[in-house]
Amino acid sequence: MKEIIQGFYQKKHFWTRLILVIAAVILMGFALSWLLLVDLGTDPCTLLNQTISTRLGISIGNWQALFNTVLLIFVIIFGGRNLGFGTLANMFLVGYSIDFFSWIWAKVLPAVKCTSCRCFEKGAAVHAAPASEIIPGSILQQPAGRW
Prior knowledge:
There is one protein chain. This protein is an all-alpha fold and about 150 residues long. Helices cover about 75% and strands about 0% of the residues. The protein contains five helices and no strands. Helix 2 (about 15-35) crosses helix 5 (about 85-130) and helix 3 packs across helix 4. About 10% of the residues are buried.
């Protein structure tokens, strides 16, 4: 166990690698929060964690931390030499990053949605007002004799 812990910080360019790993994992959480927000789907592991956390009524970050703590025991028993900060960051930071960014989107996006919908409506109204051109989607609304 001592050699595993010493192996964490005795690698070449430790601090640079640690910062890059944390930034990459937070970026993954950012991207996954968008994918969950727009229902485009995620990787199988995140989908499993999202479904179970929703069914249990807890956040994905808490569920992922709980589930990955159990998995960490097996990782230490069977493959402790391969354990690193990337493994730990992936196990714990992705879920909490998803929670954090989902919380931000819940606060920010309702205002953005209203503004963008209003802008779209005004733009569509201005574009369709002259009625001199066919706009995409309006072809279905034209009487059959016109074509």
